[in-house]
Amino acid sequence: MNSQIKAVILAGGSGTRLYPVTQVVNKHLLPIYNKPMIYYPLSLAMLLKIRDIALVVNPQDRESFEKLFGDGSHLGMKISYIIQEKPRGLAEGLILAEKFLDGSSVFYLLGDNVVFGHNLPLVLEEALNEVLTEGGAFCFGYAVPDPERFGVVEFDASGRVLSIEEKPKKPKSNYAVIGVYFFDEKAPEVAKRVKPSKRGEYEITSVLEEYLKEGSLKVKLLGRGFAWFDAGTHDSFLEAGEFVATIEKRTGLMIGCIEEIAYRNGWIDREALIKLAKPLSKTEYGKYLLKLVDE
User: Fold this and answer.
1) I need a surface site. Which of 40, 170, 171, 216 has the fewest CB within 10 A?
2) Is 261 part of a structural domain of the chain?
3) Residue 24: partners with Cβ closer than 8 Å, 6 or more residues away
4) What residues have CB less than 8 Å from 292, skipping those under 6 apart?
């Protein structure tokens, strides 16, 4: 268990980009192929052996998330819920999570991001260790054709970060900052210093800018061999589902299967896995879990 770090996953917001579906269902509960969207970021935290995780949720959605995960004990984890009364920006989650974090570093994830790639756990582990030993913040850049939709990072020739801008009209590069961040224990304090943007939101890019001013922000580019989806629009939602389906059908392995990761981490035993798989035995998902038991 990684006790020096906790994970916080943002699963609130109004999901307006996915209307009308999200008028009745929180977008993070919608299925990306064969499992809820929220499973994908959660699985990244689990791959890093982080067992203490909080979900930042809207008041009206708490019950649905609790129905899905409970307190996490069936997975050998501890899952808490933090209520965000109104969506006031991605950085607000750090402030709301201050008591939960209680002075630990944080793996901070957006609940609608799907990331996949060769050696991804290793890449994340290196970033995590960097923050645990050196402090500061660590995030990832990914080349996109439409950088004006995202937070954009600019580098010099040696890879040093020069600037980070939220949804710039004239982007200084085509590298978007993806929704996967590591912050040291100062993150809630740094987030409190941030002023709301023109949109009236506490932007996560503003938090990264504060770390950049201190000279303690690192950015790693995820190049070929990585896929990233911000599944908050209809097109990217569909693309993410098709991608997961293709990989799973080709390899016979599941992406973001939280029961499998808990089992392989040794957090649950064979009996517990069978208990989780039995009610799902008529589904492909359940059959996959039961197959793991027979390995």
Assistant:
1) 170
2) no
3) none
4) 260, 263, 273
Dihedral sign from CA coordinates of 226, 231, 234, 240 = positive
Q: Contact at 8 Å (CB) between 180 and 111?
A: no
Q: What is the 3-state secondary structure (H, E, C) of 201-263?
A: CCCHHHHHHHHHHHCCEEEEECCCCEEEEECCCHHHHHHHHHHHHHHHHHHCCCCCCHHHHHH
What are the beta bridge partners of residue 117? Answer: 226
Look at the chain and report how many structural domains it folds into.
1
d(CA 218, CA 212): 8
Q: Is residue 262 part of a domain?
A: no
CATH (domain of 249): 3.90.550.10
Would residue 266 count as lying in a domain?
no
- CA atoms of 242 and 32, how far apart (whole Å): 8
pLDDT in tens, 201-239: 899 999 999 999 999 999 999 988 999 999 989 999 999
Q: What's the rounded mean pLDDT across residues 242-251?
A: 97
pLDDT in tens, 121-154: 999 999 999 999 999 999 999 999 999 989 999 9
20: containing domain: 5-256
